[in-house]
Automatic annotation (TrEMBL):
The protein's name: Lipoprotein
Cleavable signal peptide: 1-21
Region (Disordered): 25-81
Keyword DNA repair: no
Length: 231
């Protein structure tokens, strides 16, 4: 009897073991279930550096564009400043009214008026041998001037011509009127002038000192003294 009870007990244990083993492999049981591999926590933030890089690139591009625009604006302003020039105001003045008691003397007696800058100041002084010096100066820049030396005797124009460098002097009327361009150590502006022997006797020398931007004005003034081109 006891042997049968033992056999029955073994059978129950065996059946219980089989039942428990079957529950572990059943699809509907509560055994272990495979889970998908979780993404690393930093995968989602991997796009952040790319975003920062894009922002940095955009910032650099914007900065470069701003610098380029600033440079263009500066160049435009510089160009505008370089091309701005002034023009000397000239007035036609009757020869007999150019100065009190003295007047500029044109080359030809048929010339009744000459061109002179407006608002300049006149100075006259007597020279030895009966000569006269007349000077008209810019009150804001004394280096800008027109001077004329009037002498009762003729000048040796050929000697003056021979002493000048080629290309800086030429005859307007051979042996009577010549024009020249030269530097003067006592004046920062170039000296453009004429020398002439007058048909009525005596001679004149006219020198015009103006900035390089006013050379066309210097030419007009000299032309008004001789009644023709001084170029």
């Amino acid at each position: 009897m006891s042997r049968n009870i033992k056999k029955l007990s073994f059978l129950v244990i065996a059946l219980s073991s089989i039942a428990l083993s079957g529950c572990g492999t059943s699809g509907g049981g509560s055994g272990p279930v495979s889970q998908p591999i979780a993404q690393p926590s930093n995968v989602g933030s991997s796009s952040q550096p790319a975003s920062n890089s894009a922002k940095t690139t955009t910032s650099k591009t914007t900065s470069k564009t701003a610098v380029t625009n600033k440079t263009k604006k500066s160049n435009t302003a510089t160009t505008s400043s370089v091309t701005t020039t002034t023009s000397l105001a000239l007035s036609s003045v009757a020869v007999s009214e150019t100065g009190t008691g003295s007047s500029f003397v044109p080359v030809s007696s048929t010339i009744s008026s000459i061109l002179l800058p407006t608002g300049w100041q006149m100075q006259t002084m007597s020279l030895g041998s009966g000569g006269t010096s007349i000077k008209l100066t810019n009150p804001t820049d004394s280096a800008q001037m027109i001077s004329e030396v009037i002498m009762p005797s003729d000048r040796n124009l050929q000697s003056f011509y021979n002493a000048q460098s080629t290309g800086t002097v030429h005859w307007i009327v051979p042996n009577q009127i010549l024009s020249y361009t030269q530097s003067n150590p006592n004046n920062p502006y170039q000296d453009r002038g004429i020398e002439a022997n007058l048909s009525s006797g005596g001679s004149v020398r006219v020198d015009v000192y103006l900035p390089s931007s006013e050379q066309s004005s210097a030419t007009q003034i000299l032309n008004s003294f001789i009644g023709s081109s001084a170029n």
